[in-house]
Write the structure tokens for this entry.
Amino acid sequence: MKVLIIEDERELAQSIADYLSGAHYLCEFAATYQEALEKVEVYEYDCILLDIMLPGGNGMQILERLKSLNKQDGVIIISAKNSLDDKIQGLHIGADDYLAKPFHLPELAARIYSVIRRRSFANTNVIQLNELQIDLLGKSVKVHQELIPLTKKELDLLLYFIANKNKVVSKSAIAEHLSGELADMLDNHDFIYAHIKNLKKKLTEAGCANYLKTIYGSGYKWEL
């Protein structure tokens, strides 16, 4: 899962990223209003951590821009301003949660998980799709109750496809999801084919139906 940390306190942003990386999140940074605006307009994120006070502008304007673009990224406001008015305004505009600084990193991680679970997986900890079962907290996958060993990238891909089930997902969107903004610098998407091939092989060999379809010329679709 991919997280954008919009925070001008670099030490805090890095400590958040270090902690979330241990929980298998891919983290990107924006330290100014303009940088944040450019990233939210171009890229998709599973969750955005949004500071209100930013060099060059106000975080609430970022939230309003997300709403005007009809973006579906989850948003948690993180702010030193523990103001009821700010909290109400942010939630009314479209934020999913509000966390006042200082906060404990485990609490932040739990709130991120809650936002992603609620938005992408119908607020459940265990996804059951016919013979396929995914434990989001345990980060484990079973087919017909047999544990399937997936790599971090394979599990991330599986969750990404399921979160976008019955939608065609382009190769460039998958590359961005797996590699973040670094995807723009890649010459090709060969690494995507390798991960998808391995994921499909492990699932089908365990007896899972072929839900992941190749849409030639467009990308892939998880059909249910």
